[in-house]
Amino acid sequence: MIDFLRGPVVHLENEYVVLDVQGIGYRVFCPNPFVFAKSEGPVTIYIHHHVREDAILLFGFPTREEQQLFRKLIEVSGIGPRVALGILTGGSPDSLVTAIYQENITFLTKLPGIGKKTAQRMILDLKDKLDGFGAAAFATGLFAVPVVEEGDGSSWSEAREGLKALGYTDTELDKVWLKLKKDISPDDSVDVMMKRALQMLFAG
């Protein structure tokens, strides 16, 4: 089984990257392929090698923690690799782990492909199996699940998608949202939110 691949990214799509490993192009499906666009040289992608009767698929992640969390997710009844990938696309690992610890059904059911019953199964099956995932962040409260206030959720959701398309990760955007939500107005447009978020990202 393939554990990781290393090489330059030679092609990007919305759902996958193509990695050149010694002259062989590997198509790797990722939660956010554009995160790898920032690097001009070789990148390391941690792989889940999925084999089924009609296909062999590679799912890839920028960290080993995400790789392991993906594998935990697909152990839950009703969650296959595609749904697990959508879950990691819709929320950062820290936010996801925190939501499971807090039994936050509302947050989990907003993730792609997750209904109430599947969210309940995620909590039941995973709550006691995630001690090694984001434990420090959960304990300190640094990555509390973002609460979207009425009136600003739509604009931030659109701004977030735009920022993700620029290559920013869910973790980076969650950190920005924790600061940004204190100063925004319900009347702020998507452009205004993106500009403010970019200022924060550039400032570090």
TrEMBL record:
Pfam families: HHH_5 (PF14520), RuvA_C (PF07499), RuvA_N (PF01330)
Positions of the UniProt region annotated as Domain III: 156-204
A GO term, aspect molecular function: DNA helicase activity
Residue span(s) of domain Helix-hairpin-helix DNA-binding motif class: 71-90, 106-125
Keyword terms, alphabetized: Cytoplasm, DNA damage, DNA recombination, DNA repair, DNA-binding, Hydrolase
Domain of life: Bacteria
Main location per the UniProt record: cytoplasm
Gene3D superfamilies in the record: 5' to 3' exonuclease, C-terminal subdomain, Nucleic acid-binding proteins
Annotated compartments: Cytoplasm
Oligomer and partners: Homotetramer. Forms an RuvA(8)-RuvB(12)-Holliday junction (HJ) complex. HJ DNA is sandwiched between 2 RuvA tetramers; dsDNA enters through RuvA and exits via RuvB. An RuvB hexamer assembles on each DNA strand where it exits the tetramer. Each RuvB hexamer is contacted by two RuvA subunits (via domain III) on 2 adjacent RuvB subunits; this complex drives branch migration. In the full resolvosome a probable DNA-RuvA(4)-RuvB(12)-RuvC(2) complex forms which resolves the HJ.
Function of the protein: The RuvA-RuvB-RuvC complex processes Holliday junction (HJ) DNA during genetic recombination and DNA repair, while the RuvA-RuvB complex plays an important role in the rescue of blocked DNA replication forks via replication fork reversal (RFR). RuvA specifically binds to HJ cruciform DNA, conferring on it an open structure. The RuvB hexamer acts as an ATP-dependent pump, pulling dsDNA into and through the RuvAB complex. HJ branch migration allows RuvC to scan DNA until it finds its consensus sequence, where it cleaves and resolves the cruciform DNA.
NCBIfam families xrefs: ruvA
Sequence similarity: Belongs to the RuvA family.
Swiss-Prot/TrEMBL domain comment: Has three domains with a flexible linker between the domains II and III and assumes an 'L' shape. Domain III is highly mobile and contacts RuvB.
Protein known as: Holliday junction branch migration complex subunit RuvA
Origin species: Paenibacillus lacisoli
Gene it is expressed from: ruvA
